[in-house]
Amino acid sequence: MASDIGAKRTRLRAATAIILMVVAIAGCREAANPILPAVPKGAFTRPWRDGKVVLVGIGDSITDGYGASEGRSYFDMLVANPPGDAPEMEGVSLGAVFPGLHAHNISQSYSTSIQHLTYQVERMADCGEDTFGVVVITSGGNDVIHDYGATPPRDGAMYGATLGQAQPWIAAYETRLAAILDGVTAKFPGGCEIFLANIYDPTDGVGDIEHAGLPLPAWKDGRVILGEMNGVIARAAAARKNVHMVDIESAFLGHGIHARDRRNAHYHADDPSYWYYENLEDPNDTGYDAIRRLFLIEMAEVLAPDDEVSSL
């Protein structure tokens, strides 16, 4: 796995200089005052749960925080507010509501769902019955975009596939995702809640990845395959009481490569800011902030005491 990930890292770094120039030309920059999801701050005024609580991060570079400024990955910001955080987010973190919180991020950049199951979940230690788990997962995006068209499409690296070719690989992903979710649940005999993000679309619903400024070939069925993968994620969450989908796809629409395109169906006239990092597949600091907030919104709905949520 290490050599495979290293090769992908080399290809991606070689492309980064190109997209830096294209992003600058297109005017896709982080906004000074982006409009981000509003978190119910009142839900974070008192503890949600006493005792041992562990926050676990599983998945790919989004959870690993690739490209984020120090302390500003979404995982880090779930634990504690970074210096200079937005005023409306002061005191809004899991550290504020779980006094006994411990955090372990076992995610890895450039990894796919294959590694998430075999190298992350299956190697997790079992937690005791006195420990409650809060688990965040981003898995599936690299299964779609790898290997950037550099190799023929395959399971775990579908880029360039037709929908017909991808169908068995999508089915394999569904099987793996079920094993990931059920495997994580089994690690927490004291109970856990899992927050599973879906996959965003940097083309803002257009499907023209060849216009992203990276050396990526056109992919006719890319958008429909992404939709199928997000359908898998939605079904997996709906089938399990302790799994909750975090819809980052919808929030990011209009903040990708067509952020400044007034003709795009997802154009935000009040905030046409760009939320992706130079490599296109990860968020920039604004995007990580948005993801942090989306997770906290869902967590407050699921984990905050009922009286606090009802009073918001």
Task: Please tell me about this protein's structure.
- With 312 residues, the protein is of the alpha/beta class.
- The chain has one domain (2-45, 52-310): SGNH hydrolase (Rossmann fold, 3-Layer(aba) Sandwich).
- It is 39% helix and 10% strand.
- The protein is built from 11 helices and 5 strands.
- The protein has a 5-stranded parallel beta sheet with strand order 2-1-3-4-5, sandwiched between helices.
- The N and C termini lie far apart (47 Å).
- Mean pLDDT is 91; it is low at 8-27.
Produce the secondary structure layout.
Blueprint: H1 2-26, E1 52-59, H2 61-64, H3 74-79, H4 94-97, E2 101-105, H5 113-121, E3 131-138, H6 141-145, H7 163-186, E4 192-197, H8 222-238, E5 243-246, H9 248-252, H10 285-303, H11 306-310
Helix pairs in contact: 5-7, 7-8
Give keywords.
single chain, 312 residues, alpha/beta, five-stranded parallel beta sheet
The rough form would be described as globular
- Uncertain stretches: 8-27
> Helical proportion?
25-40%
Whole-number total of structural domains: 1
CATH superfamily: SGNH hydrolase
Classify the secondary structure makeup into a structural class.
Answer: alpha/beta
